[in-house]
Amino acid sequence: MTFSFSRLASDGQARCGRIHTAHGTAETPAFMAVGTVGAVKAITADGVRATGTEIILGNTYHLMLRPGAERVAALGGLHRMTDWPGIILTDSGGFQVMSLAQLRSIDETGATFRSHIDGSAYHLTPEFSTEIQHALDATITMAFDECIQFPASYEEAATSMRRSMRWAKRSRAAFVPRKGYAQFGIVQGSVYADLRAESAKALTQLGFEGYAIGGLAVGEGQTAMLETVEATVPYLPNNLPRYLMGVGTPDDLLSAIARGMDMFDCVIPTRAGRTARAYTSRGVRNLRNARFAKEVDPLDNACGCIACSRHSSGYLHHLFRCGEMLGPMLLTAHNLTYYQKLMKGARSAIVDGRFAEFVRSTRKEWVNPHD
Question: Which residues contact residue 152 at a Cβ distance below 8 angstroms, ignoring those fewer than 6 apart?
Answer without folding.
Answer: 160, 190
